[in-house]
Specification:
This protein is mainly alpha-helical. About 70% of the residues lie in helices and about 0% in strands. The chain has a single domain, classed as Globins (Globin-like, Orthogonal Bundle). The protein starts with 5 loop residues before the first helix and ends with a helix. Keywords: Heme, Iron, Metal-binding, Transport.
Length: about 120
């Protein structure tokens, strides 16, 4: 028996797209970080570009068929001075969306591990 990839456990392309949509929506509603995300709502083309990068990032990192060609995490977040409280608010949103989609505990832990592995590349850069 072979273990399924993170990509497969997240529901493949369709599942990841739904997760990304819900994560971005949660960020836009979260008072702790919404100011960073609400401007995307005013530029639908840019919003779709950002979501596309997130989908490809999750696909590539999860063993899926897509490659990520976006900027590195430090480059993407440079100058944003993201605080630990903001970072944790984003993590809480992600975990809430994973719960909403009934993602299994193993996959939740793997996603959390990935998110924490990127913490130093995202915060205060």
């Amino acid at each position: 028996m072979t273990a399924s990839s993170l990509y497969e456990r997240l529901g493949g392309e369709r599942g990841i797209a739904l997760l990304v949509d819900d994560i971005v929506a949660a960020h836009m509603q979260n008072p702790s970080i919404q100011a960073r995300f609400l401007p995307y709502a005013e530029d639908p083309d840019h919003l779709e570009e950002v979501k596309g990068h997130l989908r490809n990032f999750l696909s590539a990192g999860g063993g899926g068929p897509h490659e990520y060609h976006g900027r590195s995490m430090p480059e993407t977040h440079r100058g944003m001075n993201i605080s630990e409280a903001e970072y944790m608010a984003a993590i809480d949103d992600i975990l809430g969306v994973l719960d909403k989609h009934e993602i299994d505990p193993r996959t939740r832990q793997e996603m959390l591990g990935i998110a924490y592995s990127l913490k130093d590349e995202i915060m205060h850069v």
